UniProtKB/TrEMBL annotation:
The keyword Acetylation does not apply. This is Molybdate ABC transporter substrate-binding protein. Belongs to the bacterial solute-binding protein ModA family. Pfam families: SBP_bac_11. InterPro entries: ModA, ModA/WtpA. The keyword ATP-binding does not apply. Keywords: Metal-binding, Signal.
């Protein structure tokens, strides 16, 4: 079974995939994690996939508009942004405004992907303009720049800050409330393994699935 899922779901879906394989002996769950926009483009171009979990309704719409979804996608979690800084926050970043200082190397996700679109929304809400040193293809790439100390800060999801442990420090900011992302999931119309795909969606939405997701920092829909 092939599951296409937003990069920010990497840790929690990997855990759920292992649980699913235990419950369904003989079933292998193969994940394709990446930027939701490129995953959607792959699906609409005919890439074989059973399930799509996106980090925003907008990227899911590309799939439903192409009539590639089976039924109506449902929101299974929500996520909000946080600033990831170097461990110990040496630059003393305390707000989104602090990122606009010319001496800081800041990275953002590309505007085409949900984490980038959400960051732009938060910056607009704060009345701020920010020129990053780079735009990254997905949230994990943005976070990695800070982990590798190639950037001083990145605007990512709080789930990614949590997953990185002590490799980064997290700074919450109030404007993130204006840019909360809904994550929809759907079975795909041409799913080669529709029954198994539907069972995986049911696990994600179950109490056990939600427990894994909320432990990762997501919030219930």
């Amino acid at each position: 079974m092939n599951v296409f899922a937003a990069a920010s779901l990497t840790e929690s879906f990997t855990e759920l995939g292992e649980e699913f394989e235990k419950r369904h002996p003989g079933t292998e769950v193969v994940f394709n994690f990446g930027g939701s926009d490129s995953l959607a483009a792959g699906i609409t171009s005919g890439a074989p996939a059973d399930v799509f979990a996106s980090a925003s309704p907008r990227t899911m719409k590309a799939v439903t508009d192409a009539d590639a979804a089976a039924g109506t996608p449902v929101t299974f979690v929500r996520n909000r942004l946080e600033i990831a800084t170097l461990p110990g926050n040496p630059d003393r970043v305390a707000s989104l405004k602090d990122l606009t200082g010319s001496d800081l190397k800041v990275v953002l996700c590309d505007r085409a992907v949900p984490c980038g679109a959400a960051a732009q929304k938060a910056l607009t809400a704060a009345g701020l303009k920010l020129t990053p040193v780079s735009y990254e293809e997905d949230v994990k790439s943005a976070l990695n720049k800070v982990v590798l100390k190639e950037a001083d800060a990145a605007v990512v999801y709080r789930t990614d800050v949590k997953a990185a442990g002590d490799k980064v420090a997290g700074v919450e900011f109030p404007e993130s409330a204006k840019a909360v992302n809904d994550y929809p999931i759907t079975l795909l119309k041409d799913a080669p393994n529709a029954d198994v795909g539907q069972a995986f969606i049911e696990l994600v939405r179950s109490a056990a699935g939600q427990k894994v997701l909320t432990a990762a920092g997501f919030t219930a829909p």
